[in-house]
Write a structure and sequence with these properties.
Low-confidence stretches: none
Structural class: alpha/beta
Number of helices: 9
Pfam family, one: ECH_1
Protein name: Crotonase/enoyl-CoA hydratase family protein
CATH topology of the largest domain: 2-enoyl-CoA Hydratase, Chain A, domain 1
Shape: globular
Largest sheet: 6 strands, mixed
InterPro entries: ClpP/crotonase-like_dom_sf, Enoyl-CoA_hyd/isom_CS, Enoyl-CoA_hydra/iso
Family: Belongs to the enoyl-CoA hydratase/isomerase family.
């Protein structure tokens, strides 16, 4: 299991400009926004864009000033998946689309406008939470062209919506609108068209206001416990929890001194 306090990984220098032609990395205080910038192709992913996504999320994971990450697409769509006109993607360790097999140590939110289909759906599933515009569309559209799901869709989708609904999407390739996706638990928030990124930023900023040691340790415990027995999962939870005891003690002291009484919000 991953130690959320481990700082032994290779680190990038956030002061070095992020230079990718089709992927942008922009940080506003504690929220980093990663944008796929190929609106002319509905943000379909070619090989250079996959490399950009890989590098953007590596940067996010080692950027100490970035607490939350938001993934979105430029223009009217989130992402249409792999660029079938190029067909130049490579099966790298991080995944065909650049990040689908990566695990970052901080929370992520997908901001979905328009289409999140095929590999675009898989990128949205890679994020922890999904905020979708009311007119957003989700679907395994690669079914129509004989392209397999190889960026986590067959594994993450049933974990979110259940086996039956996942098979419905995977086998039929049909379009699922935002309302149905929300009913299924595929989408966490539905907002007005054109406001998904703002809403995702707001959601991310709210999470960023909490003590981050326990945000990260509880998130890690959830992921490390998936698929395990309850007995093993409780041990996983306890292991991660012990890494956050100092933060818990500090929070308990603040509460004892009167902060947060009566259910009022606490910005930390």
């Amino acid at each position: 299991m991953t130690d959320p306090t481990d700082d032994s990984r290779d680190r990038t220098d956030p002061a070095v400009p992020f230079d990718h032609e089709t992927v942008r990395y922009e940080r506003d205080e504690g929220v980093a926004v990663v944008t796929v910038d190929r609106p002319e192709s509905r943000n379909a992913i070619d090989d250079r864009t996959a490399l950009g996504l890989r590098d953007a999320w590596r940067r996010f994971d080692t950027d100490d000033e970035a607490l939350l990450g938001v993934l979105t697409g430029a223009g009217d769509d989130f992402c249409a998946g792999a660029d079938l006109k190029q067909m130049d993607l490579e099966d790298r360790e991080e995944g065909w689309l650049g990040c689908s097999r990566m695990r970052v140590d901080k929370p992520t939110v997908a901001a979905v406008e328009g289409h999140a289909v095929a590999g675009g759906l898989e990128l949205a599933l890679w994020c922890d939470l999904r905020v979708a515009a009311a007119d957003a569309t989700f679907g395994c559209f690669e079914r129509r062209f004989g392209v397999p799901l190889v960026d986590g869709g067959t594994q993450r989708l049933p974990r979110l919506v259940g086996r039956g609904r996942a098979l419905d999407m995977i086998l039929t390739g049909r379009a699922v609108d935002a309302a149905e996706a929300h009913d299924w638990g595929l989408v966490d928030r539905v907002v007005d068209s054109g406001t998904a990124l703002d809403a995702a930023r707001e959601l991310a900023a709210g999470i960023a206001a909490h003590p981050q040691t326990t945000v990260k340790s509880d998130r890690a415990a959830l992921y490390d416990g998936l698929g395990e027995s309850l007995e093993t999962g409780l041990k996983v939870e306890a292991w991660h929890g012990t890494k956050a005891l100092a933060t818990a003690d500090e929070g308990a002291t603040r509460f004892a001194e009167g902060e947060g009484r009566g259910g009022e919000s606490v910005d930390r």
